[in-house]
Amino acid sequence: MLTLIVPGLIWTRQALADLTYDLPLLAFATLLGRGRLLHRPPQGTAATLAEVAGLNAPLPVAALRRLALRQPSAPHDDGDWLCLDPVRLRLTERTMIVDDPRGLNLTAKEAAALAVSLAPTLAELGELEVVSPQAWNLRLAAGAPATAAFAALPDAIGRAATALPLDSAYAPWRHAISEAQMLLHGHPVNQAREATGQPLVNSLWPWGGGRLPEFDDSAGASAHAALWSNDPVAQGIARLLRIESGALPTRFAGTGGRRTLAIHDALEHPARFGDALAWRDELARFEADWLAPALEALRGGRLDALRLLAPGDLAAVELRISRHDTWKFWRKPGALTALGPP
């Protein structure tokens, strides 16, 4: 069985009609027509991943991605961790927009220099660790202030930046982030980046706190034997569950008889930024490289079932189709507009 999580697939029904009316999505239409489509309440990608992996939400993102990305020589640490990622807040006419951190393209040398300068500002809150140039973690100090109300960075990308919680419990965080912003403003790394036309790091984004959960062997094996994803959080989950993990293949070529979970996130970025042309291109590739081969594998008996989960802010859907469903030729092809909220 293949469980496929596909963020960025859900638009309004009218938008889906306008975006896909001339795309030859024959495999997708067949799967929609012969499978069983269930509309679910709106749900984010992380919550969907937690549900499928059998973990509690919200996920302790910082601890999970550290598990996936930390160097082999780095000591294992079961403490409380918080993501404290470098970001660019871009000023528009009316508000500050959170740019995609991947657009920063920070080098390891730049990240290390920034982190060394910022460490004293954050020392009372915790110890800063650069897990990767774009992923920074803070090991929270004993008695560190609350973190639960921080907004998840993936949900904020491309949108107006929300203020840090105004509750008095979060005052130390507001002070520290403000001090960090002032330090970043004149930092030599940013001065050098500005001189070469690169985006500047002008803030830090706290989110995804928590402690790495324990894996309970007594509860039985994981529901999946393999997990494919380019996301370090998902790779951390695979390590936690002690299942095989790897990057998402460019094309579906079978699961090797294993129950496999895959996260195909190429549609998420263009959907979030409203880039309709890029989204159409990615959808066409998703059809050719994943859905058409999966449908062929179902028909050929090399795949017994497909479960497609599409999380989204407007709505979420689940499509289930078994090998036997593919031969129900009397069912008409489905329309992609069915994916939109009713």
Question: How would you briefly describe this protein structure?
Answer:
The chain has helices at 13-20, 26-34, 45-53, 61-69, 108-122, 153-156, 171-185, 188-195, 232-241, 268-272, 276-299, and strands spanning 2-5, 36-40, 80-87, 89-91, 96-98, 126-132, 135-140, 203-211, 226-228, 244-246, 260-263, 305-310, 316-322.
The proportion of residues in beta strands is: 15-25%
Q: Strand arrangement, largest sheet?
A: 2-13-12-1-11-9-10
Structural class: alpha/beta
Give helix % range. Answer: 25-40%
Alpha-carbon Rg, integer? 22 Å
Outline type: globular
Sequence stretches where pLDDT stays below 50 over 5 or more residues: none
Count helical runs: 11
Largest sheet, if any? 7 strands, mixed
Total tally of structural domains: 2
Distance between the termini: 28 Å
Would you report the number of β strands?
13
Average pLDDT, rounded to a whole number, is 93
Order of helices and strands: EHHEHHEEEHEEHHHEEHEEHHEE
What does this structure look like?
Helices cover 34% and strands 20% of the residues. With 342 residues, it is of the alpha/beta class. It starts with a strand and ends in a 20-residue tail after the last strand.
Key structural traits:
single chain, 342 residues, alpha/beta, 2 domains, 7-stranded mixed beta sheet, 11 helices, 13 strands, globular
SSE diagram, text form:
Layout: E1 2-5, H1 13-20, H2 26-34, E2 36-40, H3 45-53, H4 61-69, E3 80-87, E4 89-91, E5 96-98, H5 108-122, E6 126-132, E7 135-140, H6 153-156, H7 171-185, H8 188-195, E8 203-211, E9 226-228, H9 232-241, E10 244-246, E11 260-263, H10 268-272, H11 276-299, E12 305-310, E13 316-322
Parallel strand pairs: 1-11, 1-12, 9-10, 9-11
Antiparallel strand pairs: 2-13, 3-7, 3-8, 4-5, 6-7, 12-13
Helix pairs in contact: 2-11, 4-9, 5-7
